[in-house]
Amino acid sequence: MQEILTRYLNHLLIERGMAENTLEAYGRDLRRYFQFLQEKKIIELQDVKPEVIIEYLVQIKGEGLSANSMNRALAALRGLYKYLIQEKIINQSPLTNIDLAKVWMRLPDTISKEEMNTILIQPGNSTAAAMRDSAMLEFLYATGIRVSELISLTMNSINWQVGFLVVMGKGSKERIVPIGKTAYDSTRLYVDNARPQLMQKKTTDVLFLNRFGTKFTRQGLWKIVVRYAQKAGLQKKVHPHTFRHSFASHLLEGGADLRTVQVMLGHADISTTQIYTHITRDRLREVHQKYHPRG
Fold it and tell me: Is 81 tagged catalytic?
């Protein structure tokens, strides 16, 4: 692969007259791609399948690349495979049936379980606001609900006896989602000790209250998530929807079936949920190799 890369970069320099800075950037992008293939134990370029390309895009987007860097990485891939076909090194490009731009736009922003845990421990419970923030973050991750759904929750949205959440989603469709013990305990702590303080003698059934004792705005919740992600030292961009994406990805990594995750996310079409399966294939492969007698 190193020889092919050298030949391709020479082609860009001599025949295409590519600027030196752009050439160096392409070289870095493609070396990262070839390193990715090596980690997958793919040694022949003709063995690269479309799902491998998508996994690669998921990985580099997860590294926090800017839009310009992502666009350049996509251009480098397109150019490389066009060259490989011209030189008859491969017969068919794995990009043939992939709209890279569309795939990139659909790739969910996720963070690892370790990164998520680092964010979740940031608020603590020393103040009413901290208890509220902790409960909201735990709730986002435990249920995968949308921002608009979270800020619209009321005290009656939770069945405290069985630990389930009733969510009114898009199109006024109701769904039921388990809360989980950690989020349940955090929310119970907030409701019992912090919410009465935040109500400021007002009467409201809104579950999560801002400092004025009223319902959060989407922007207000967004700022809270960003603040704790920065406090946790994460370099990549994290927003409320990152929690929803990570909720789905981590469930699938743990072995949950796609239909169940679809129901919990409130997706009308399972094809919307399937984008997360690209992220979990590595994990499935690792589990198979580790536990299968012929793995």
Answer: no
